[in-house]
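Forwarding these from the shared drive since the link keeps breaking.
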Amino acid sequence: MNIAVLIKQVPVSNDVSVDPETHALVRASSEGMINPSDLNAIEAALVLKEQTGGKVVVFTMGPPDAEKSLRDAMALGCDESCLITDRVFGGADTIATAKVLAEGIKKYGTFDLIMGGALSADGATGQVGAMVAEYLDIPHVTEIQAVSYDESEPDKVTILKKFQGLDLTIKAALPALVSVNFGANEPRLATLRTKRAAKSKPLATYTNAEMGMDPEEIGLKGSPTIVTDSFEPESDRKAEFLTGTPKELAEKLKELIETEKGKE
């Protein structure tokens, strides 16, 4: 089974800058890491690869330094990677991002399954995976807990999805796309040996010269959603630490609650 995994490089911390004109995050301004739930998608993909053979190719769209996250993914066991990077892709919303990722996947090759994290740590829209599936015209199941493959049904995967307290078992025809929840499994760790091996694994780079997409339909120009302003909200709230016996704490909490009610 050949599997594509979509990952996103997200800031390590909240200390990031915002472009004053586009109001988009300046991703090159801070250190990046693989989005946490994407690590769960990578782990699920590697388990399937170990069962079925084939290869795992990891894709990302981002600035040139997103190569670091691709190398990190290959250190975990992914076989190849593809960096989609060009200034014309910058400022993209989820629709424009999905359009480029789908085109990059089609250009790279044919895949039985496409996987990705359910939510990103910096945006948490949960939209890109489903949109990529729509552009590729394949079925998709979002926010899943597990995916398995049975050789007796070579054209399907079985998916476990938790929904409103229920465990749902869903079968999807291949090719398909699934997005994996954060914490769905225990991602493996890279070793010094695998980190060294990752440096020589294949990494393709696609710019729009290779992709050939209309600049009016991608990036900021091709994004139907636009951020008109961004700001850090002001707050005068402060934490207050209480000490004492359970009885004393209960009395103090009661006093605080009554004081706050009196302000309303």
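-- next protein --
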Amino acid sequence: MTLTDACCNTQPTNAQWQAKGEDKVLTIKVDGHERKAYRTGPKDSKRGIVAIHDPLGLHPTTFQVYDRLAVSHGGFQVAAPHMFKDGPVPTSLLGDRAAFWAWIGENGDFKKNHINDLILAAVEDLRADGCTTFSIFGQCWGAYIAIQAASEPGQPFLTTGGPHPSFTTIESVKDVKCPLILLASKDDPDMIPVIESVKHDDFPVESFHRRFDNVPHGWCGSRGDWSDPDQFKAGLEVVDLLGQYFAKVSAIAEVKQ
């Protein structure tokens, strides 16, 4: 799998943003443990989004993306689970590719770490709060996880993907059951072949790709610094593209309900 160098050697930033939502304990325990999710967005929205943060956890720019997305294009209820039971990757491992990869393998494995159970628990809380349609996206490793979740049998998601995706290859999307939105940075591999590989006639909308060649990997997550004008402009465009895409697939699904 493809691991961008910037993914495993870039420290989180000291970006500023006051989170608009709050942490809530998920109703369903995961592997016997209580887990939490950050919740944001209008409580009367019937459109749910599960958001998967990058390996460094929830940071100000991550919250900013979720908060802005939640009030875009008619509004969404966003649930962002705290993905790692014992906390995110230690920053001391950044710069050591082998150690970083080993940590992900130990703590961020989709099956071993009950990640799909955590995601589905977040879906059920969104459903209990009135949501009837669901999308999923992630940043970096989170996009890879979001794609795995949307490749599972019986998965509930209408679309998947996210900004600056890591580990995303033609092989990793071969079983995906909904269209992709991939928003690459200047540091990420070419995502066009991946998008081309999932153009299926039975998807309600075409998969979507855009490349942002003036911003670094991680700019929509823990490594983002939106005091930088280029990152801020590109970040707002990502929020708009995600919101527009999720609203479009939700509207199509709602007509069929």
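The domain at 5-256 is CATH 3.40.50.1820 (Rossmann fold). The chain has a mean pLDDT of 95.

- D.
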